[in-house]
Design goal:
Blueprint lengths: L4 E4 L6 E4 L5 E5 L2 H7 L4 E7 L3 E4 L3 E6 L5 E6 L6 E6 L2 E8 L13 E3 L15 E2 L7
Parallel strand pairs: 3-10, 10-11
Antiparallel strand pairs: 1-2, 2-5, 3-4, 4-9, 6-7, 7-8, 8-9
């Protein structure tokens, strides 16, 4: 069996373990991700929900994406770190923030989403595939 992806918040109150490899890994330059990260993009890895175990209680807030679907961001109520996201329209996936990984070097981005909202000062790997918005399902 492959080594699980593990991680959590900064204070350790929320922990996750994920069996399997990411289905998709991306840098997102949408305005929501910019605000949440405090930079020009957020970096995420998305997995099949079936392989995910989470311990600890997260606080959550819902927002509506450009698609009109609800995405729920989960963060630690103690340290404030945003750890993961879930999507009402896609209950079978689980998305983590790359920086929340115990071994962030395992994160290998495949694409940039919402490149249309990029800032000139946010330099990402020019070799990555860029999508103006979210790629088709």
């Amino acid at each position: 069996m492959d080594k699980p992806y593990t991680g959590g918040c900064a204070c350790g109150a929320i922990r996750y373990s994920i069996a399997g490899e990411p289905l998709f890994a991306n840098h997102c330059q949408c305005r929501d991700c910019q605000r949440e990260s405090g930079s020009g993009h957020g970096s995420y890895a998305t997995f099949a929900r079936a392989g995910v175990t989470v311990t600890g209680e997260a606080r959550r807030w819902d927002m509506v994406g450009d698609s009109g679907n609800v995405k729920t961001r989960a963060f630690c109520p103690t340290c404030g770190l945003a750890v993961y996201m879930t999507f009402a329209a896609m209950p079978d996936i689980f998305t983590i923030r790359a920086a929340s990984l115990d071994e962030p070097a395992r994160y290998q981005p495949q694409a940039v989403t919402y490149a249309a909202r990029a800032y000139a000062w946010d330099h990402l790997d020019a070799g990555l595939t860029k999508f103006e918005t979210m790629p088709p399902g």
